[in-house]
Amino acid sequence: MIGLSRRAVLLAAASAPLVVACTSTPPAPPPPDPLAALADAALEDAALATAVDAQETAAARTEHAARLRAEVERATPSTPSSSAAPSTTSSAPQAPAGATREQLAAALQAAQKQAADLLPSLPAHRAGLVGAVAAGCASLVEALG
């Protein structure tokens, strides 16, 4: 006989899955939320609008950023191990020196296109928000003109 008791064999068989579970690699982090890029662009547009004294546009784009960021945070639950949550109160982006209304209109058109291109890939509950942002950008471009 080999010298292994029945108890030793059963213990080894029962503990094998535990050893594998303890040594497996953690799952990969989820991909970045596409709405986060829209929120960042909205903040950049707000800074540009402020630089060209388009206060209503700045307020609208700041609101877009806040709503998009809230959706990103709702959809991405924080984990207990990550105590440093992404900050929504980070400093606003600085507008380039010599910013013009034409640059603002181009940025708004780019934001509208970015949002519209994202729409087909979104679930219905997020598509409404992104569609409203795209429509808002279109109306802001018209108001600038």
TrEMBL record:
Alphabetical keyword list: Signal
Low complexity composition bias: residue spans: 75-106
Span list, region Disordered: 54-106
Signal peptide range: 1-21
Segments passing through the bilayer: none
Basic and acidic residues: bias regions: 61-74
Name of the protein this chain belongs to: Uncharacterized protein
Lineage summary: Bacteria, Bacillati, Actinomycetota, Actinomycetes, Pseudonocardiales
